[in-house]
Each structure stands twice: as structure tokens, then as C-alpha cells.
Amino acid sequence: MHGPASPGWLLVALCAATGAYCLLRMRSGVEEQRGAAGGEALMGFGMAAMAVPAVVFSPPGWVWPAYAVVFGAAGLRALWAARSARHHLHHAVGAAAMVYMAMVMAAAPAHGHAHGASGTPVLTGALLLYFTGYVLLTGVRLIPVVAVAGGGAGADGRAAAGWGDRPELARACRLTMAIAMLAMLLPL
Q1: What's the DSSP call for residue 165?
Q2: Per-residue pLDDT tens for 11-50?
């Protein structure tokens, strides 16, 4: 999380851009897309805020418990939504990882955000394994499949989905945040 300035700013930019795209996806006509995009936007902006280099801004002590509460609530909401859509389980794991990182940062000595913070090695390792697997699996799913020749309609004759409803863009959004989560978990 709060490591060297250059990679930290790249992580902030990546997460903020992903959060902004997810906000745009909330305009979708599909209710499930809107709900998932809202949770992903919260995650993207929360990760961007958490990744701001410590040399620029060291948040006061109350921020970390506030992160834990916000992402704990987001995790509970994701668990509730997982009853109808399986990908919400990933959101719950992501929110749990954010709660974990916030708790580690709250316990870290002041200004020791990058190298003084130490989480539970087993939990950190489990989260690293989960997100590595998620990145690899999602990356494989993004490999393009040969498209069926046709006009503007899909293979089944329906009209092509709008850019906010395209599943590969939502998958790319989740992949980006999973890669960023790996980068944030590594210093723990």
C-alpha cells in the first residue's frame, strides 16, 4: 500500500480510472450490471485512496477504522447479493481484503505504512493466492473467441449490447482491480 511514490501514483491512477469507468457502467439498463458496477466503483475509489503515497498524505488514525466499517458493510452487501449472482462472492472477498488491509494499517506505527506494516502471514498468503488465481482465470477468460460473422447483431440475432453492458469490459474492470489488490497486498 503506501510504498514508493511512482508505483503508488500509478496504482492510484489505475484504481481511480477503474472506479470512474464503473461509475459510468452504473448507467446500464440492466439492474444487475448497475448493482455490481456500484460495488466495483466503491472498491476502485477506496483502493485509489488507500494507495496514495504516504509522502504525500498520511491519513489520521480514524481513517483506517472508517475504511474497515465501509468495506465491512460493502462485504455484507456483496454476500447478500451473492444469493442471486455468483460473482458477488468475489466482491465479498475483495471487501474482506480491504477490511484486512485497513486493520493492518490501523495497527501499524504512524508513518510506517509501507514497510512497518505486517499482517498475518497465513491470511496475507491466502489472499495473495486467491487474487493470483482470480487474475489468471479472468485473464484467460478475456482471450478473444473467434466471432461469428454477422452484422451488428450477436450470434443469436439479438442487437449487440451497449458498451456499459458488455461482460468483457466488466471482467476487465474486475481483473484490473484484482491486479491492484495484489500490488497492495504484497507489502504486507
Answers
A1: G
A2: 999 999 999 999 988 887 777 777 788 889 999 999 999 9
Residue 88 in contact with residue 36, Cβ under 8 Å?
A: yes
pTM of the model: 0.81
CB 185 within 8 A of CB 135: no
The rounded distance, in Å, linking the Cα atoms of 116 and 156 is 55
Angle between helices 88-107 and 63-81 in degrees, nearest 10? 160
What is the rounded CA–CA span in Å between residue 81 and residue 102?
Answer: 23
Render 127-158 in DSSP notation, one character per residue: HHHHHHHHHHHHHHHTSPPPPPP-SSB-TTSP
Please give the helix or strand (H or E) that residue 55 lies within, else none. Answer: none
Q: Given phi > 0 = left and psi -120 to 50 = alpha, else beta, which region is 162?
A: beta
